[in-house]
User: Fold Nudix hydrolase domain-containing protein from marine metagenome.
Amino acid sequence: MSSQEEYRPCVVAVIVGPKNKVLWCQRIDHDGWQFPQGGIDQGESPLQAVLRETKEEVGLEEQDIEIIFETKDWFKYDVPRDKRPKYFRRNVYKGQKQKWFLARLLSDDTKINLQASRPIEFDKWVWSTYWYPLRTVVPFKKEVYRQALFEILPEYNKIK
Assistant:
């Protein structure tokens, strides 16, 4: 396996809602909070993946959000060995490489539905400040969150 294949390609959605807060979700197993995210399927573009994952994980359809920005770079992190079986069904990856997207919520937040599809990923969500996730994300994702949030920040600051 090449070093590129060691990282599962994924997308992350930072969804901005009322009062410029960001959607922050608690994993159903209560082992952390994160932005909606997920793997890119075979033949799928990162944009297609983020729209699909947003619908699957939080119930927001393409017309409910506006994609504002996509990070230029991929951000990589390693998953601790003891957590890999939970994160990767076949345990073939050592981590993830992620494209991050900034999106604005266009619809009412009552459209957020954490039970939109199976398996259910989250059981709670809140609107948080932009930097709050950096303080509360699981430690092995913290550096990637810091890098990605700094890259997205100029576009986030343009949102009124």
About this structure: The chain has a mean pLDDT of 92. The CA atoms of residues 32 and 138 lie 6 Å apart. The two ends are 45 Å apart (CA to CA). Strands lie at 7-16, 22-27, 33-34, 37-39, 65-70, 75-78, 95-105, 122-128.
